[in-house]
Amino acid sequence: MPANSHIIKDGEVVSDSWTLLDQSEQIDTTNIASQSIVPLALWQTEPSLQRDDIGIALTNDIDLTAITDDLTSVPVIAIDFPTFMDGRGFSLARLLRERYGYKGEIRAVGYIIRDQLCSLKRCGFNAFSFDAKNISGEPDLKTMATSLTDFTDSYQTSADTPTPLFRRRA
After folding, report:
1. Cα 61–67–69 angle (5° rounding)?
2. How confident is the model at residue 3 (pLDDT cuts 50, 70, 90)?
3. How far apart are CA 3 and CA 23, in angstroms?
């Protein structure tokens, strides 16, 4: 999958300098450029890709315990959403942030919609790449970015707000 020209990252519309490689195609490992996001299986089997300028793409059925020891060197983790109704990616992001302490970019890719952005952010995503084929027309990223602030407060804890509301008000 070619990189979109722009993404939403940390609440802003920015140029996307990363290229997400299509997991369904055969990938020539000798020609993988810097700032590529490669499928996890390829990253695991090709030691030359385990460097700080290569990100990994996860399917939403991954067992994270298989990669937790290697997370410190991964700058970007892209989590695929095959449909907008599949919520496993939300759980993966939250686990990466809270249980495994991942500090890098967690990017939602695939079938995500504007209505999910605020919840995705609360689970630990800080970047969003929209696939135009899943949205009617070209996405208006500036308008979509505003939905990251749809709710100004929450009762529950989350990856982006680890303290519950009653403690924040105390």
Report:
1. 155
2. very low
3. 13
